[in-house]
Amino acid sequence: MNINGTLVAQAIVFALLVLFTMKFVWPPIAKALDERAQKIAEGLASAEKAKSELSVANKRVEEELAKSRNESALRLAEAERRAQALIEEAKGKATEEGKKIIAAAQAEAEQQTVKARETLREQVAALAVKGAEQILRKEVNAGVHADLLGRLKTEL
Prior knowledge:
Number of strands: 0
Distance between the termini: 172 Å
Shape: rod-shaped
């Protein structure tokens, strides 16, 4: 065995091995590596896109929350305004009702005062007639002296 022959044989075997590897082994490995690189690139792009969409969604959520807070604040203010209006209306009605009750009580008191005066006048007139009867020692006829008794009542 000659070293040159062995070296040439090894070079030929090596060349055949390289050709076989480049023809049948290397393309599937390169294809798998390219596909993997493409999937990684797509995954990174999807992650970046999802990140931007999440950012946009967060901004939209914050805007909606701010809008909801403003609307709830407006509704709360409107409810408070309505409550104040109802309270003021109730106060007005209560004041009006109180005035009506006071006016009715004053009118009733006035009527009772007039009635009491009339009763008192009649009693005073009856006492005056009795006193006059006792002074004159004779009966005073109410029918005959009606005019005199009427004037006496009005003077009292």
